[in-house]
């Protein structure tokens, strides 16, 4: 590794983010500066600077970012309607680990399905299916639940519950890794 460091006074990203703490900088802030940057020798200082900021924000190597783990709650009360769970912001990558569906007013079996939608092409695919008469489903106990999986801003994760029920609440544990 080189000891070379760019002159911070010549990096516009520092002027643009000067009034923000690291904890307040979102992926969209970095993306606003880095996206228009061409990979060229004369942009080496900018590229090193973006990398330095990303490292300081723990946005490297696919490891979870500090203080970014959450349990996302999505509710459905309409048979066969897809509801959005998450569409990451530009520059973000989320990793989904575990989940639980809690169903009230269940009669018979309820089908739980997860879909991924490609926001660039509108293509959609089914990635998880479960049919159960239980009012409490732990997804990690199902052999078809393959985790962790990752999504970025090009994808939307959706949930659909079908059957006779009052409400299905879906809880997903996820963390931002970029």
Query: What structural class do you assign from the helix and strand content?
Result: alpha+beta
CATH class of the largest domain equals Mainly Beta
Average pLDDT, all residues: 88
* Total beta-strand segments: 9
Between the first and last Cα atoms, what is the distance in angstroms? 23 Å
Q: How do the SSEs run, as a string of H and E?
A: HHHEEEEEEEEE
Within CATH, the superfamily of the largest domain carries the name Nucleoplasmin core domain
The CATH architecture category of the largest domain equals: Sandwich
The helix content, as a percent range, equals 10-25%
How many domain regions? Answer: 2
What low-confidence regions span 5 or more consecutive residues with pLDDT below 50? none
CATH topology of the largest domain: Jelly Rolls
In brief:
With 178 residues, the chain is of the alpha+beta class. Helix content is 15%, strand content 42%.
């Amino acid at each position: 590794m080189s000891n070379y460091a760019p002159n911070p006074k010549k990096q516009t990203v520092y002027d643009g983010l000067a009034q923000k703490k690291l904890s307040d900088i979102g992926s969209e802030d970095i993306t606003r500066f880095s996206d228009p940057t061409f990979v060229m020798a004369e942009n080496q200082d900018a590229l090193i600077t973006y990398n330095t900021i990303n490292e300081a924000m723990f946005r490297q190597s696919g490891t979870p970012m500090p203080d970014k783990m959450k349990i996302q709650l999505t509710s459905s009360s309409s048979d066969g309607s897809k509801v959005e769970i998450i569409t990451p912001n530009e520059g973000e990558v989320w990793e989904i680990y575990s989940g639980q569906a809690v169903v009230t007013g269940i009669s018979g079996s309820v089908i739980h399905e997860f879909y991924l939608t490609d926001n660039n092409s509108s293509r959609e695919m089914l990635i998880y299916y479960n049919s159960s008469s239980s009012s409490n489903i732990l997804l990690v106990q199902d052999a078809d639940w393959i985790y962790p999986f990752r999504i970025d801003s090009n994808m939307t994760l959706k949930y659909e519950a079908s059957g006779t029920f009052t409400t299905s609440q879906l809880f997903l544990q996820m963390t931002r890794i970029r």
